[in-house]
Amino acid sequence: MLSDALFELNIKYNGNIEWKKDPEKVSVKNRGFRISLKVKDSSGIGARRSRNGHKMISACFHAHGDLFDILFNYGANRIVTEYHGRNDMKSKEDNWKDSNIGSRYFALYHSEACDC
Ligand SMILES: [Zn+2]
């Protein structure tokens, strides 16, 4: 399911998204997996930008959000993100919550930290 989801995601992102680390089971009892995304080419689609515009190897807000939508389409019933606070998502309705990853005075919204 995870590799199918990544394949589908890469149709939109020109094959630029990959796992940072192979998905690993959260625990023996839990059926969940811990995943993180990165880009192959930081100049390509889906790459994050730092506050001062530098290219990063991390995947952006949109690449993550699109993957979560795909996983919910595939029947995932819970996705928890732990990036600038915890977001416990039960459905697509909970997805796409933007947050300020800058400072109080120099705001940078996660959704703006890329070239999408
Ligand atoms: Zn983006």
Can you walk me through this structure?
The chain is of the alpha+beta class and 116 residues long. The chain has one domain. The protein has helices at residues 2-12, 61-73; strands at 17-19, 24-25, 33-34, 37-39, 47-49, 55-59, 79-82, 86-89. The protein has a two-stranded antiparallel sheet. A two-stranded antiparallel sheet has the order 2-3. A hairpin with a 3-residue loop joins strand 7 and strand 8 (86-89). Helix 1 (2-12) crosses helix 2 (61-73). The protein is globular and about 40 Å long. The structure holds zinc ion. Zinc ion binds at residues 60-62, 114, 116.
Number of helices: 2
Rg (CA only) = 14 Å
Bound molecules: zinc ion
N-end to C-end Cα span = 26 Å
The succession of helices and strands, N to C, reads: HEEEEEEHEE
Number of strands: 8
Largest sheet: 2 strands, antiparallel
Q: Taking strands numbered 1, 2, ... along the chain, how are they ordered across the largest sheet? A: 1-4
- Overall morphology: globular
How does the helix and strand content classify structurally? alpha+beta
Total separate domains = 1
Instruction: Give the fraction of residues assigned to helices.
Output: 10-25%
> What ranges have pLDDT less than 50 throughout 5 or more consecutive residues?
none
Mean pLDDT: 94
Approximately how much beta-strand content do the residues carry? Answer: 15-25%
What attributes characterize this protein structure?
116 residues, alpha+beta, 2 helices, 8 strands, globular, binds zinc ion
